[in-house]
Amino acid sequence: MGSFLIGDAGVVEVAADAAAMLSHGESSVATSLGQAEPIHIATTVGLLLASSLLAGLASEMLRLPKVTAYLIAGLLLGPSVFDVIPHEHHQFLEPLTKLAMALVLFYLGTLFPFDQMRRIRKKAIPLSVGEMFFTALFVTAGIYLLGMSPAQSALLGTLAIATAPATTMFVLRETNAEGPVTSLTGTLVTLNNLVAVVAFELVWLGIELATASDVQSLSVGATLMRLVRSLGGAFSLGLIGGLVMSYACEIMHTRRWLVLLVGMASLLLGLSETWSLPYMLVFLVVGVVVVNSSSGTQKITAQLDSIGGLLTVVFFSVHGSELDLSLLADVGVIGAGYVVLRSVGKVFGIWVVASRTGASPEIRTWLGPALLAQAGVAISLSATATSRNPDIAGHVQTIVLGTVVVFEIFGPLLTRAAVLRSGEMPIANSIHHTFGTPLSALRNVFTRLAGSAGLLNKKTALSERMRVEQVMRRSVEGIAENADFNEVVHFVEHSHDNTFPVVDDDRCVVGLIRFDLLNQAFFDPTSDHLVRAGDLATPPDLLLYPSQPVRAAVDLFRQTSDDCVAVVTDEAPHRLIATVRRSDLTSLLIRDRKAGLGGSESSE
């Protein structure tokens, strides 16, 4: 991507170009379209959104992540296939794509409340350090052996650390996945990009000092000051912006929050670009500050979600239209080596550290593949390096742009597979009510109409055909029977449910702790650290088995107000293996109803 508008001179120059293009028509745009007149920017946006909508429908039929579909839609409209998007329009759409990236980075920053830093330090940081170390080591050493200079190899090793935040987080939110792999993926994406931005500046400092003809104290001092100004300025702007955002949300009504948040985000993005500060770092800091200084973080992120969907579609479709498949041939063996070395480094780094720290097999196997997507951060940093020294960084940028095609197409697929295979995404979430052709869709409309009129029997709903094992979430730990009261509180604090299974040493469910009873314990003066989880539990009267039909789970939830029900093995001893959530079943039944499916029971 090109650089954002910087300073008044840049604004005047771009405005003049825009006026000339719109008033007189650019022949290059017209030529690219084979038309006498250039297409309007609104037409470009309409084409991108329409193609993304169709691609999204196709992705449901093919069970692909929507991110991949949006990228492919943009790719088809870009220079690699039909070439209908004028290159000049990317310049005008760039503020929207950067705003979308900024909001994703803001959301990632909100995942770091200070009261959870202890958990992050123990679990995520060792994994992150190992993954980043081996990735940078493998890429730097491997690319150097393939023939690139030490400076270029070090740059690629640094850029390889970065993981695409927008791509990865969109896939995680689309799949509605929850569990250790999902949580660690979000944390490691944040750490990766934070370290990549800082490490890039440090590596570039080393390159400048190593390539300088005569290293003088003045030049060293000036370089160091630029580094301090860049990183320190980003932290300072993020701190001030986060505090202002939190304070403004405290004194303003919720109805005004969306305008406030979008306005603040745009202002911070503009200031970052005007002052040449890394905006990615700015918005990470803003998110961290907001989550630790505001009481309404969830409401803030919910407000941004209302426009986040549209910006996400624009981001990925525009990004796809900028991909150039011809660059794959330009990067050659070195580009292929970069793809292999980066992938092996992330997967191997996670595997080594996870094996030594006793992490679960799911983390050891699937966390690495979930981190392979790469795009915006690496592209932005490589563009910055090229603007500083084209001779050194020009080929580096070509390799990054070429390999992004691979990482952005296959990265979302691997992220989705990771959360599915690790049991953190219910199988039912990968099943969509789609009707393969327009004719079949029309037939289903009349089928639903006739069924509603009682003229024929409706098709069997998914909720009637599926088993519990297809809707359960396997990422469940349970509370140890001998856990003390503080451990129970800690478990509940980081759970999304109101019912918590208590297990013995063999993971057999010995009881259930319900939030209402736990709430009473907080106000009981006799409750202290001597109280154990087993003392707070009630008999496990509500349990499910994987082989049971989903209808049995629906009937069970009608008997209770619990948010979730524990799932145990079919064979004795009945060990805890998963939970079924009321919200997942509700979504399934809603999809059945929208599709006009199900018998009389499902429509009650």
What features would you describe in this structure?
By secondary structure, the protein is mostly helical. 67% of the residues lie in helices and 4% in strands. It is built from 24 helices and six strands. The chain has helices at residues 7-24, 27-33, 41-62, 66-77, 87-109, 117-145, 150-159, 165-175, 180-211, 217-251, 257-274, 279-293, 297-322, 326-357, 361-366, 376-388, 390-421, 438-452, 462-465, 485-493, 515-522, 533-536, 550-557, 582-594, and strands at 479-480, 499-503, 509-514, 543-544, 564-568, 576-581. The strands form two sheets. A three-stranded mixed β-sheet has the order 1-2-3. A three-stranded mixed β-sheet has the order 4-5-6. Strand 2 and strand 3 form a beta hairpin. Helix 5 packs antiparallel against helix 13 (297-322). The longest helix has 35 residues, at 217-251. The chain is globular and about 75 Å long.
Can you lay out the helices and strands and say which pair or pack?
Layout: H1 7-24, H2 27-33, H3 41-62, H4 66-77, H5 87-109, H6 117-145, H7 150-159, H8 165-175, H9 180-211, H10 217-251, H11 257-274, H12 279-293, H13 297-322, H14 326-357, H15 361-366, H16 376-388, H17 390-421, H18 438-452, H19 462-465, E1 479-480, H20 485-493, E2 499-503, E3 509-514, H21 515-522, H22 533-536, E4 543-544, H23 550-557, E5 564-568, E6 576-581, H24 582-594
Parallel strand pairs: 1-2, 4-5
Antiparallel strand pairs: 2-3, 5-6
Helix pairs in contact: 3-4, 3-13, 4-13, 4-17, 5-12, 5-13, 6-7, 6-9, 6-14, 7-9, 7-17, 8-9, 8-17, 9-10, 9-16, 10-11, 10-12, 14-17, 16-17
